[in-house]
Amino acid sequence: MARSPHHVAMSLRLRNTLSGQLEPFQPLATGRVGVYSCGPTVYGPSHVGNFRSYVFADLLVRYLRWSGYQVTWAVNITDVDDRIIRDAIEREMPIAKLTAPHIEHFLDDWRRLRLSEPDVRPRATEHIPQMVDLIERLLEAGHAYRTEDGSVFFRISSWPGYGRLARIDPSQQRVGERVVADDYGKDDVRDFALWKGPKEGEPRWPTRIGPGRPGWHIECSAMSMHYLGTTFDLHTGGIDLVFPHHEDEIAQSEAATGQPLARTWLHCAHLQLGGEKMARRTGRFDTPADVFHRGYSPRALRYALLAAHYRAPVEYSDQSLRQASAAVERLSSCLRSLDEYTELRPDDASLPVVLQAAHRAFREAMDDDLNVAAALASAFDLVREVNRRIAERGLSTADAGRAAAVLRDLDRVLAVVGPDETATSPAPPDGAGHEITGLLAERAAARAARDWARSDELRTRLAELGVAVEDTPDGQRSRRITEMARG
Ligand code: AMP
Ligand code: ZN
């Protein structure tokens, strides 16, 4: 199992949309987790509502990693779909030219909002062969049929499990904004397009099932299974994706493989504006760039999108951004004070208990279906305690280091303190650098919590990565081991 000081008492429970129940999280393979998150459809800019779904997925991934799991995270980019094609035709340009600037902005916002870099970021247009394979299997098994115009449809009447995720009666007619355009002469109004036959002026791919282009749902099935396997652990998206997108993903994947697609489905509630889902088609939305332009920092926006439970709707407003700015400032200034603090005095004997309790409360809240609001409350309780002790000069210099280490450790999940990246800054350093920083923070936290066994384990792991750690009265010091010294 993976390395972390936190996995020992780990008992994460998640609300699975599929069962409607709170379930203990059990990965398919011990210590490893595969997560697929539906990414943007890049016909326009991604708004802060879209980013709520990514911040939620990032919180999940960060928390799993913090808990000791090795996570493989895939986030797709839907770079071909009806709306992209519609807009590209309207503007008389190739779809790639239409999507490129939106992808660029999306990736820039992603980085500025401190979303972890996914392990894979598959693009639909680069996975047409995988989609064709899947469609062929469905045709062979009788779950799909061709129509005269060269399209292929999924036959819902062939799949009795249809409707299980969304809890709908399978005989019900399909509704939803992306369904209307799926009308290509199908047998049953409920059936959905896996493949859309070629049309004048539209992009097409020459394939074994004929020329054409993929339907939206098949894209995510093909990409998720390609990178994470036939069955994987977690699939995330906004609540609007439950039906039809995820219902259709399940139907076409499971009909083809006979295996469950994802074990746990997690959906976040919407970011709302005036009580309604923020949506591109209404024209009333803010992009992250709009928010930064108005003077809010990326970490304040991240906080505003992160701070409520993922299943609770959030109203987006200037007030929420102002509150978020104040909250991140409170955390940051506490850390600054701790970093600057020096006092020659004996250690505060009551501090370890306070640190340990904060750490435990944070973990217990997050284990409870990612109750981040309660986790944040425990972080702020700690800030209040620490600020009081700073004001009283009741901490030793080493105490201040211990408290800072715990706050930094919690921030590996929250990622809201420390300076913001600028839009043009280069990509973050390579994985090893990140890993070392993380391990050092974990070790400092383990020592602060007097978990000596864990701190020794982390010393060994750091040594393997070429970093020597030494414990001094002022906390841990690290240095690179030279090749020769390492032998
Ligand atoms: P799209 O770019 O429309 O394909 O959506 C990308 C992701 O954003 C999906 O997971 C959607 O469910 C999610 N999403 C869209 N609007 C909102 C919103 N207002 N609040 C939260 N998530 C949203
Ligand atoms: Zn998807």
User: Which spans have pLDDT < 50 for at least 5 consecutive residues?
Assistant: 1-5, 424-431, 482-487
Q: Any idea what the radius of gyration is?
A: 25 Å
- Strand order in the largest sheet: 4-3-9-10
Structural class: alpha/beta
Strand content: 5-15%
Task: Give, in order, the helices and strands.
Answer: EEEHEHHHEEEEHEHEEEHHEHHHHHHEEH
What is the topological layout?
Blueprint: E1 13-16, E2 21-24, E3 32-37, H1 48-66, E4 70-75, H2 82-90, H3 95-112, H4 128-140, E5 144-146, E6 152-154, E7 192-196, E8 213-214, H5 216-228, E9 232-238, H6 242-257, E10 262-268, E11 271-273, E12 276-277, H7 288-293, H8 298-306, E13 314-315, H9 318-340, H10 351-367, H11 372-391, H12 397-414, H13 431-448, H14 452-464, E14 467-472, E15 475-480, H15 483-486
Helix pairs in contact: 2-3, 4-5, 4-6, 5-6, 8-9, 9-11, 9-12, 10-11, 10-12, 11-12, 12-13, 13-14
The protein binds adenosine monophosphate and zinc ion.
Zinc ion is lined by residues 38, 220, 245.
Description:
- With 487 residues, the chain is an alpha/beta fold.
- The protein folds into three domains: 13-147 and 156-167 and 214-282, Rossmann fold; 326-414, Up-down Bundle (Four Helix Bundle (Hemerythrin (Met), subunit A)); 432-486, no CATH class.
- It has 15 helices and 15 strands.
- It has helices at residues 48-66, 82-90, 95-112, 128-140, 216-228, 242-257, 288-293, 298-306, 318-340, 351-367, 372-391, 397-414, 431-448, 452-464, 483-486, and strands spanning 13-16, 21-24, 32-37, 70-75, 144-146, 152-154, 192-196, 213-214, 232-238, 262-268, 271-273, 276-277, 314-315, 467-472, 475-480.
- The strands form five sheets. The protein has a four-stranded parallel beta sheet with strand order 4-3-9-10, sandwiched between helices. A four-stranded antiparallel beta sheet has the order 5-6-7-8. Strands 12-11-13 form a three-stranded mixed beta sheet, covered by helices on one side.
- A hairpin with a 2-residue loop joins strand 14 (467-472) and strand 15 (475-480).
- Helix 2 (82-90) packs across helix 3 (95-112).
- Residues 1-5, 424-431 and 482-487 have low confidence and may be disordered.
- It binds adenosine monophosphate (AMP) and zinc ion (ZN).
